[in-house]
TrEMBL record:
Residues 55-74 are annotated as: Disordered. It comes from Luteolibacter arcticus. This is LPS export ABC transporter periplasmic protein LptC. It comes from the Bacteria.
Amino acid sequence: MTIRRLSLVVFVLILLYLGFSLGGFFRRESPAAERPASRGAAALKEILSGAELEPAKFPTKTGPRPGNGSPKRKVVTSDIDTVLQPGQMLVTGGYPTRAGRREFIMIAAERHPEPGYPDQIKLTARVMDLDPAAMGAAGLEDLESDRASTRQHGQIWEPEEAKGTLEALTSHSGATTLNRPTLMTKPGLPASITMGHDGNDDEFLLETMVGFAADGSGITLELEVKSITSKAAGN
């Protein structure tokens, strides 16, 4: 009887022990359930702290914004192939300006050898702005042109004529010299000069190729002159 009671007590104690152990197990929160959430938050924080954020990108329109675009440009060209003898001057142009006057370009060519450059050629140009009275004094009324493109449109002045006319224009109240560029080049090489004119962003572009004429004294001249202005000049 004593043994049976002792066995019963032991059995009860075992049950009580197991009950406390299981109860504690079920009451305890599983750390495994916390760790994934904790690691996820830390990882996200780490990613955001080191991220290089870019601004949102939206489709953009190409071309100038309304009201901000550059004005339309008018390009007038003159192509001339000729031979200039020493002292002669080629005159072309007659393009309208913003002020209602006309612009002309005058070009002379000469041999200009220097040490190391025995076949060098020097081009001397002059851009002039003339009113009707000055054009009449220089005999340039026939060169007045509103065409977008001309070919062989010009005059060749003989040396004395060139000298006298330029002297007269220099002192004429209706004539203004805008630019006097000089260009050194060699036969067979393309060369160009860009000149601002008319006191604004308009410009003259002179592109040329020169050579020695067969007569041994003249300079062959292939010339293209471009006058680039706003549409306001000469419409």
